[in-house]
Each structure stands twice: as C-alpha cells, then as structure tokens.
C-alpha cells in the first residue's frame, strides 16, 4: 500500500542508503534501530519533508515522490509532541481541518470524536505548556488522526514519557490501531515496544534496513551480527562452515556446531539462550548438538536464571528458576548442554 | 577564616567596580534632566520646535521600523532556515551596517540618492531623499535594519523546524506553515526587535544628518534638534530633547528586556 523503493538521502551526519520497504494496508510496522540509524529521516522522507536524493515513494501504486507533504495525506507524530504552543488543545486538534472544506458543525463533531478517542476531552481549553507529556502526546496523535491519514508515522512517540505513561499509551496505540486500521510506521529503539505493537518489524542500522519480517521471525532468526546483537541474542559466534547432506557443520575453537541452515564459508552462528537445554547427565535426544561444560557464572534475575557454561567457548543459557532449583546448579559444576541444529541460526 | 576574608574582599572589589560604573551613568543622566528648572523644561517641551521634533521623530521612526520588519522577516527567515550558496557572505553583508560608522553610511546614502542616475531617477519620479524627511527614514532604516534582522534570525533559529513539518503534514504550504505557526510563535522576538529598532531610530543622528541635513522645522528630529540648539546656545530646548530621548531609551530598554528575556519560552 505504501512502498519505498531504493531511497537514498544524505542530510548532515545522517543518511539513508538504498532503503526499500513494502507495507500493506492496515499493517503496524515497527522500525527498530539504535540512535543515529536514520530512522527519523526515513519517516520525514516518507512524509515528504525532504525530497530523496534517489529512489521513489509510492502510495497505492501512485508515485508520490514529488508531492509536497500536504498532498500526501500522511500524518506525523514526533517524540517531543510539537504541539503549537500558541494554540489551545482544541485549536491544535483541528489545525489541519482548515485545508478541508468542513462546516463548523462537522469540525466540532470531529474534534470531539477524536478527543473522546484519545481521552483528552477535558483538556480542550488548556494550552500545551500546562499539560503532562502523556497528555501532549495524546493530543499530537489526535491532531494527526483527525486528517484521516492513509499512513500515520510515529517517531519514537513513547520515548519521552515515564514508564507508567509509556505502558498506558502503548496500549492506547494498539487500541487505536485495531479500531481505525490506519497503517502505522512506528520508529523506536525499544525492543519491547517493537515486539508488543508491531505485526511487522524492520531493523535499521547506519541508514540501511538490515532485516524485515514478522517480529517473532526476526527475533528468532536474526540475519546478521548487528541484528542479533541489537536484539539481545547473546550467543553469537564466528566460525568456518562446511555443508554435508544439507547440514552445516561450523568449526570454532575446536568445537563443531551443527546447523540446519546450509551455508558455507566464514559465518556467524547464533543460538538463543532459551533454546539451550541444560542437564546434569547426558541426554538421549535427536538434537545434534550436545556438549559437556563447566558452569562459569550464574546471574539470577528473577523468573529466568542466566548461566554461563564454558564448553570451550562460553555459552549463555537461560533456564527457569524452577529447573535451576531442581538441578541445584552451582558454580564450577560439570553439566551437559544440548540444542537442536534448527536452533543454530547462521548468517 | 583567612580564606573567607580574602574571598569577600575580592567580592567587594568587583561589586565596587559595578557600583562606580552605575554612579557614573546615573550622574550623567540626572545631570541632563536637572540642568534646567522643571518649569523651563516643561515650557520647552511645549514649544513649537520641540513639538515638531517629537512628531517628526515619531513618524520617521515608526515608518522606518515598519520597513525594517517588512524586509527583515523574510530575509531573517531565509537565513535561519535554508541552506544556499553564498549564505555566509549574504549574512555578513546584511550585518555590515552594524559595524559601519553612521556618518559613513550617511555619506554613502547621499552619494547613492544624490549623485547616481538611480537616485536622480527616483527624485524625478517624486521620491526625493536628499534633504527631506524621507531621507531620515531611509537613514534610520539602513542603520537599524541589522538589529531587527539579527533579533528575528535568532528567534526563528530558536524555533524547531519540526513545528512547520507537522503543519505541512496537516495541509499547510510552506508559506502557510510560516504564517500560522512560526510567525505567531515569534511574537516576543518580533516585539523585542521592533522596540530596539524603533528606539535606535528615534536616536539616529549621523546618517540622517548626512542625507537629510539639519534644517530647523524641516528635518529636525529630536537628536537633530538637540544638536542645533546646543550649537546656538539654546540650552533649555537642547535639554528638553535630551530628556525625551532619555525617557524613551529607558522605557524601551525595559520593554526589550521583558520580551527578549521570554523570547525563548517555546
């Protein structure tokens, strides 16, 4: 529905390099990346604030690359709200309606509908400077939604809020999305937000989109070292892979991991800590990877216990508190680790 | 204990410097205002000549300030927002009248409007600048434009361009976003800039003297009146002009501080 094709843009220290995205109607795309990855320029280029140096933007297969922002019908919400300080809340919300030919009655109906949706009806006569961050962001969202945009762009909308307000507004965004089915592109550096809101996820770094997919897919199978590290996958190793019978055998530090991803040469392999099984005795299973190691460290963070086990290289394993107690694991103990070839992701 | 003593001595010395300066300034101002008797001052204020000077000063300074606003708003916006070739050079040139002695500016204006075909053409079309009140206006405009320009540029630079971006996604053209968002948000900067430009316009002497001359009851603004009356010994009239100029300066300074202080509210 909205398609970005090979967009490049250089703006000061930030840049976009050959970015392509294809977003379906009603989708909630999360763009995840560290500070300075170019996420904001991506949104501003889609909104039409700057012309791209190269590439095209399509809305419903119509090339809108050359259109000014006002003719695109794409809404924008920034991290620091950008409410017009000289206008009260009501005038802020209805700011955009002047460009549409509505009667006074239609306008006030729309304002009260949006104010109700966002729960800000009691604030209509206040000025932005007197409101809390959460209230201001609700008004900014109402101001964008009143235009009935084809796409709503959200630039770190929750980052400036305290954690309680953030949780509330996050649920609000989910509700608004399911209610209006507006296509959303939401930029964030918070993984939780991305996982809880998005039905698609794009990972960005240094102005490039490194991976796109469903959040669970991206989370389980990061396709590069950056994505893996950024998503907090702790076991990332570099080794040489040889493929035999569709199974890749990766050699590193004298160890050999089997992976279901058949790729040869120098590769990175990642294993999620929760996909590794720990046992006191060797286990008989169909899993191809089984090693003996020594417990190097235990970090007890509540429900999940993370254990570092040295099997030649340090592996981080996450187990439940219950099984940790059952096995009565202690530092220096010899244990066995087992994981499936399918859970070794190679990139 | 000793340390504390030394510190407080230093403090006392620095504060004394400030106080000496303040006394010097106040002595000067009070000296002017109290030089003649209050009766003589009031009589002079209501004399035909001073009344004329007040009126001419007000009219010329209001017109020149308005011209400064009209020209500086777009120019300051361009230099605050856009990147283009020659921007730095343009910026320097626009600031130049600030460093130029007003007398030199006046000579330049006199040459441009009095001797070139451009000036002669304007004069033939009925727009005469040399030795006229219009000359005073153009002199005030030329000398004080950089003040307006700089205050406005700083104001526009202080406003996040994202306000305009949002306005553009809400159906505004770039000019519309400026008109509906940036300009109203610049209100304090506009007031502060206008006050300082107006106040300096009232006091403008050198450049105006060069192009408009100092003709009694014709191009006689308050500073020109002060100069004319000083040079022919009419002290009460000179003091009257000086007193009005002092009062205007004090009020303007107060208003400017009030608005420029809160110019960064947003």
Describe this structure in words.
- The complex is a heterodimer of chains A (about 350) and B (about 270).
- Chain A has 9 helices and 20 strands.
- Chain A has about 350 residues and is of the alpha+beta class.
- Chain A has a 6-stranded mixed sheet, sandwiched between helices.
- The longest helix of chain A is centred in the middle third of the chain and has 18 residues, at about 165-180.
- Chain B is mainly α and about 270 residues long.
- Mean pLDDT of chain B is about 90; it is low at about 260-265.
- Classes of the chains: A alpha+beta (about 350), B mainly alpha (about 270).
- The interface between A and B is medium-sized, with 27 and 20 residues.
What structural class do you assign from the helix and strand content of chain B? Answer: mainly alpha
- Characterize the biggest β-sheet of chain B: none
The biggest chain-chain interface is: A-B, 27 and 20 residues
Q: Main beta sheet of chain A, described?
A: 6 strands, mixed
Shape label of chain A: elongated
Number of strands of chain A: 20
Q: What Rg of chain B is obtained from the alpha carbons, in whole angstroms?
A: 23 Å
Proportion in helices of chain B = over 70%
| Overall pLDDT metric of chain B | 91
